[in-house]
Design a protein that fits this description.
single chain; 398 residues; alpha/beta; Rossmann fold; six-stranded parallel sheet; 39% helix; 18% strand
Length: 398
């Protein structure tokens, strides 16, 4: 069996889509390759149960979070001088935490260990997943000493300010990635259009829903018919039309008073969005913020919902398709996506749900249409993780 080095920001066990995707992919990869994994210690300070070995790289990503939230800062959080100083530190920190020189120095022993493993085990192929830039620094270091083929899977644009808050460094890392990658796997046509001129050996292989863990789509048979449940699953950050969606759904609930409408947020909600949600006065709509849960529990919430929600950023997210979209399709639940992102619209609109703009009236109109529409899931296997990973393996081996 040939050996493969897999560099990824997340491994299984984290309550994020990237972690779920990793688990779905590596379960198939291990049938073809002897896989060694390199991952971010900040997110995964444990071993992957699927890999031969798990190596961890270190970053400074969470150090500033500790500085700004530790006990010593509590008495100064309203002090103008403290706020000014913390702001200056944050600006400098955006350079330090993403610095290639700092990262390579901090992980010099790990990089030496990886080089040794590649030589001793005759590893010829490396699978890198981005937009995390640290993996790019690793492959740039190991390519100088080894004759390996780099296959890079691009989940989203690297030089995207939503993902990396230091555009200059992200753009530089992006150029390194496209120059040293032998093959590119991209998850949407939007990402393909961004990188197709940089690397001709590129293929679009979309995300997929996890069909290994068979989700019982009939689990909601016993749900209360007096309730209409909408659920947003996944992390929620500022810059999305949360306020507009809540107001529109509350209006819908008021017009359909014989039913009790519920909106659930399952996953991490940042402080700005949490404040927005709490400051909205709803007349009929019940809002439940359920927080971060396991992927198994998230699946239960998903299946027991009537409708599933996607809220993309108002700008800056137009390349990628949210991974949750495919889980929603696999669960056979109608989708309402508040988005202007064309790749997502092309996939979902009038096929698996409704796509609407970020305007309250547009959302309200979409909700009305969604609840009277029927969707066909007979061909959902096209989006299964098994089919997607089969294509990935074929591309790696080609």
């Amino acid at each position: 069996m040939n050996s493969l080095l897999y560099i990824t920001d997340y491994i299984e066990g984290s309550p994020v889509i990237a972690s779920v995707r990793y688990e779905g992919i590596i379960q198939h990869l291990t049938s073809k390759f002897d896989v060694s994994v390199v991952t971010n210690m900040n997110f995964n300070n444990y071993e992957s149960k699927y890999s031969r070995r798990t190596l961890h790289f270190k970053t400074f990503e969470r150090s500033l979070e500790k500085l700004s939230s530790n006990n010593g800062s509590r008495g100064h959080k309203h002090n103008p001088l403290y706020i000014w100083m913390l702001g200056k530190i944050k600006v400098a920190w955006k350079v330090v935490k993403y610095s290639k020189c700092v990262f390579v120095w901090k992980n010099r022993k790990l990089i030496k260990q990886i080089n040794k493993i590649i030589k001793e085990e005759n590893i010829k192929k490396v699978l890198l997943t981005v937009p995390d830039i640290y993996g790019i620094y690793i492959i740039d270091s190991i390519c100088k000493n080894n004759n390996v083929e780099i296959i890079t899977e691009i989940r989203d644009i690297i030089s995207n300010k939503i993902i990396c808050d230091n555009y200059r460094i992200a753009l530089k890392a992006e150029r390194v990635m496209t120059s040293i990658s032998d093959k590119l796997i991209v998850l949407s046509d939007g990402i393909y259009n961004k990188y197709c001129d940089e690397n001709k050996n590129i293929r679009t292989i979309m995300n997929g829903y996890n069909d290994i863990k068979n989700i019982d789509v009939t689990i909601d048979k016993n749900k209360d018919d007096n309730y209409v449940v909408y659920s947003h699953i996944g992390s929620l950050y500022k810059g999305r039309a949360v306020r507009e969606f809540i107001i529109a759904l509350d209006k819908k609930a008021k017009k359909n008073s014989e039913k009790k409408y519920v909106l659930q947020f399952i996953g991490f909600v940042d402080s700005d969005t949490y404040e927005i949600i709490n400051n909205i006065e709803c007349n009929e709509l019940e809002i439940r913020i359920l927080g971060t849960v396991s992927s198994e529990k998230a699946n239960e919430y998903m299946i027991s919902s009537d409708y599933l929600v996607i809220l993309t950023h108002k700008s800056g997210s137009e390349y990628a398709i949210p991974g949750k979209t495919f889980d929603y399709i696999g669960a056979e639940k109608p989708i309402i996506a508040v988005t202007n992102d064309q790749p997502l619209i092309n996939l979902v609109d009038n096929k698996f749900g409704i796509c609407v703009g970020h305007d309250i009236n547009d959302i309200e109109s979409g909700l009305k249409k969604l609840e009277v529409s029927k969707y066909n899931y007979e061909n959902k296997e096209e989006f299964s993780r098994t089919n997607q990973v089969k294509k990935i393996i074929e591309f790696i081996e080609a």
